[in-house]
Amino acid sequence: MSPERFMKEYWQKKPLLVRGAIPAFALAKISGGGLNSPISMAELAELSSRKTVESRLVQSKPWSLNHGPFKPKTLPKLSDPDWTLLVQGVNGHHPAAKTVMSWFRFIPEARLDDLMISIAGPGGGVGPHLDSYDVFLIQMAGHRNWRISTQTDLSLKEGLPLKILKNFKPTNDWVLEPGDMLYLPPNVAHDGIAVDAGCQTWSVGFKVPNYKDLISEILWRTTEALENDPKLNQLYKDPQQRAIQDPALVPQELIDSVYEKLNKIHWSKSDISCTLASILSEPKPQTYFIAPQSLLDLQAFKKAITKQGISLSPLSKILHDQEFYYLNGESVSDDTEDDWVFWKKISINQSLTKAECIQLSKLIEDSQNPWFEAYCSGWLTLNSL
C-alpha cells in the first residue's frame, strides 16, 4: 500500500492490520532461523534506569503503576507473569528505534512524537484503554493478543492508577507475531495482552496539540512583539469624559478605545506558521542534551565536519515554514538562500555528507553561527569516522 493510499483511506479514519509489515521476520522464519528484536531486555532495563528517560512499570494483578528510574535488578524477570515495562522516547537513545521512526516520515514531522517500547511477561498489559492520538503498534518480539472496539461507552473503572475502560466490548481480535503491525486512529478502544515472555511492542505515537494551547502560545508571543509597538505604548486619554453618577462602572469610552486597538491587531499566516514551527519543534521537558566531551573551537569544528559530516542529534527536531527553520524551538536559518539549502538537506536527510559540509564550512564565519552553536549545545553531532 502506498503512503498516499494509506493517508487517504485509513489515517484518522479506521484501523488497519498489516501482516508481515517487516518482511525480514518472515524471511528469517522461512530460512529456518529466527530474528530477535534489535533491542534487548537488558538495554531497555538500562534505559529505564536513567533519569532522562521516561519509564513506567505496570503490574496487572492487582493493578499498580510505578514511575522510573528503576534499578535493573528490581525489574521482573521475563518469565514472570502480568507485568509491563514501558520505555518512552527510545528513538532518541537507540539507532534501531530511530530507524523505525524514519519509516513514518511520510507524515509531517510536526505530528510525529516518539517511539515507545513495551516489554512484558506472559499476561502483561495496561488494560483496555483509549489513546487520543494515532498509533502504529509494531510487534518486534513474541506475540501479543490485540482486541479493539469502536464503542462509545468511555466510562472508566474507579480507584485505579490507570485509565482502564469499565465496559470494554471488543469487536475484533487478533494475535500479532513478530513483523506484524496494527494502526489505530484516535479514540479506538484497545487492549493488548502479551502471550509469551519477553513480548515486545514498539509504538510509534503522534503529537495532538489542542487549539487552546496553540492559540495561548501565539497570543503570549504576540504580547512580546507588542512591546515594541509605539502606538500601543501610548497612554490612554479621555478629554471628553463627562461627570458620572456611578463611579465604579468601567467607562464606556475606555472599553471602546481598547476594543478598537485590539481589532487592529492582526496575525499573518507567516506569524502563525513561524510560531507553530517553533512550538512543535521544542523538545519535551525531560529531554537532556549532552554537549561534546571534547568541545572543538570554531576552526577545528569547520575542519572536522568536512572530514566527518554532521547529523542531527536523535533527540533534536527541526521544522520550518516558508521563511525560517526552527531547531528545538529556536530559529536557526538566516535569510540567505545558501543557508536555506543546508538546513533543508539536514531536515530531510537528518545529516549532511562530507561534501556538503565542505560547502557549508565556507558560510560559517564566526562562533555566533547557528551551526556551531547547535554543535556546542549537543543539538548537532559529528558523524563517526
Taking the sheet with the most strands, its summary is: 8 strands, antiparallel
Task: Name the CATH homologous superfamily of the largest domain.
Answer: Cupin
Strand order of the largest sheet: 1-9-6-11-5-4-2-3
Helix content: 25-40%
* Count of discrete alpha- or pi-helical segments spanning 4 or more residues: 11
The beta-strand count equals 17
What coarse outline follows from CA principal-axis ratios?
Answer: globular
Distance N terminus to C terminus? 38 Å
Assembly type of the chains comes to single chain
CATH class of the largest domain, named Mainly Beta
Rg, Å, rounded: 26 Å
The tally of domains stands at 2
Structure classification: alpha+beta
Beta strand %: 15-25%
Task: Give the SSE string.
Answer: HEHHEEEHEEEEEEEHHHHEEEEHEHHE
Which spans have pLDDT < 50 for at least 5 consecutive residues?
A: none
Q: Mean pLDDT, rounded to whole units?
A: 93
Can you tell me the CATH architecture of the largest domain?
Sandwich
CATH fold descriptor of the largest domain: Jelly Rolls
Short overview:
This protein has 385 residues and is of the alpha+beta class. It contains 11 helices and 17 strands.
How is this fold's topology laid out?
Elements: H1 3-9, E1 16-18, H2 23-30, H3 41-48, E2 55-60, E3 63-67, E4 83-87, H4 95-102, E5 112-120, E6 135-141, E7 144-149, E8 172-176, E9 181-184, E10 189-194, E11 199-206, H5 211-226, H6 252-263, H7 269-280, H8 298-308, E12 310-312, E13 318-320, E14 325-327, E15 330-331, H9 337-349, E16 351-352, H10 354-361, H11 370-377, E17 380-382
Helix pairs in contact: 5-7, 8-10
